[in-house]
Amino acid sequence: MLKTTISEVYKYVDQEVKIGAWVANKRSSGKIAFLQLRDGTGFIQGVVVKSDVPEEVFQAAKAVTQESSVYITGKIQKDERSPFGYEMLVTGIEVIQAAVDYPITPKEHGTEFLMDHRHLWLRSRRQHAIMKIRNEIIRATYEFFNEQGFVKVDPPILTGSSAEGGSELFATKYFDEDAYLSQSGQLHLEAAAMALGKVFSFGPTFRAEKSKTRRHLIEFWMIEPEMAFYDHEDNLKVQEEYVSHIVQSVLKNCELELKTLGRDTSKLEQIKAPFPRITYDEAIKFLHEKGFDDVQWGDDLGAPHETAIAESYDKPVFITHYPTSLKAFYMQPDPNREEVVLCADLIAPEGYGEIIGGSERIHDYELMKQRIEENNLDLDTYKWYLELRKYGSVPHSGFGLGLERTVAWISGVEHVRETIPFPRLINRLYP
User: Residue ranges of the Aminoacyl-transfer RNA synthetases class-II family profile domain (predicted)?
Assistant: First the structure.
């Protein structure tokens, strides 16, 4: 018997095949049973007609329980009514393991219940679709940066200092000295860029931030490119081309998943470079015109402010040239206006907030030393980072894209907890 997967059945129309699967759901009448089957690659309906199969096969179809594992054989045929386009006329069922009292039933469940059973919730059609979109974004990320001549570099997760200079760090002991879980691989990637030109990383980052918003996770994944000889303008072009690439890749390769989630793809079809840009000054003026009198020049922009700005555009929008006081110590000041830096946050449409933060980095030794001291950072700890400005320093830029927020935006999911297999939140370290 030919063995295949659900995603490959289109190759075997009118042929009999064998698939290893789980029974996601079922319904039956006196003469026919419908089995909703999944195997990780996709979902397909298995139709068991009593008159066409031995009695024991039909009885097995009626008795099989939700999430039981099976080997199922049958003939593949096209089905225009199915979102997948195919169904299986079942001829045989072999139960591998019969599941009893599966906790997640087709009825409604509360969020906490589903989060407690995240290891099982991942099996649902909705979660399957989100994870497939996440995977496509990752695949397209490697494709984009490889085609652009970037080298993948893996910065350390255990570090002796903070990339941002902040206090939201997870501390641990590294034998007899203090260490921290990485907030960002940026500083080490700058060193790699001085050796390899254009580099990027993809890995986990950690923020001990006591936030409960739908946009925040304690552990999340970031894509972080760093580029030697790239200025602020060059940096923005890479960002908009990269985001355009991943959105169009999802539209092309995840049509069924987007349909499963009910995503309005017309909004995604507009996401093509170039993206609109406004300065921080213009953002403050705009917010005042919209009645946000609570925010003044020098204040950071919160979620309501970002959403109000994003609603004026049908593409992601760059907010550039933030005040120096709001941003990290390593950002290059505007040569024409030192109170602002050459940076940008990329705000996604539809209320999803910032998905990218980036900047041109300071490349002058004396200025970087001054900024380290002004931010009360230990010069010895940052000695190696400062030395990058001592031995062949060049203008360079980079950015970081938060994967989970990007998955949420592209897939249309409200909360980032659904965009990572096992979310880590303030109150959740299980499962």
Answer: 131-431
In whole angstroms, give the CA distance from residue 232 to residue 298.
Answer: 21
Whether residue 154 is found in the same domain as residue 275: yes
Q: Is residue 425 part of a domain?
A: no
Supply the pLDDT for residue 163. 66
Looking up tokens 């840009």, which residue turns up? Answer: 277
Report the domain count for the chain: 2
- Assess if residue 274 is contained within a domain: yes
Beta carbons within 8 Å of 420's beta carbon, 6+ residues apart: 134, 217, 219, 220, 221, 403, 404, 407
Question: Rounded distance, CA 162 to CA 271, Å?
Answer: 34
Report CA 401 to chain centroid distance, whole Å.
Answer: 9
**Could you tell me how many residues make up the chain?**
431
Tokens 């003026």 locate to 285
pLDDT at 99: 98
Helices (H) and strands (E) in the chain, counts: 13, 19
Same domain? 84 vs 130: no
Task: Order the strands of the 158-159 sheet from edge to edge.
Answer: 158-159, 177-181, 171-174
What CA–CA distances, in Å, run from 367 to 192, 386, 389?
21, 10, 10
Nearest to 343 by CA among 356, 354, 358: 358
Domain interval for residue 87: 2-97
Mean pLDDT in each 10-residue stretch from start to end of the chain (431 residues)?
Answer: 96 98 94 97 97 97 97 97 94 98 94 97 98 98 98 96 73 94 96 98 94 91 98 98 98 98 98 98 98 96 96 97 97 97 98 97 98 94 96 98 98 97 96 97
Nearest partner of 92 among 60, 45, 51, judged by Cα: 60
Give me the CATH number covering residue 342: 3.30.930.10
Question: Torsion angle of alpha carbons 184, 186, 187, 193, nearest 10°?
Answer: 150
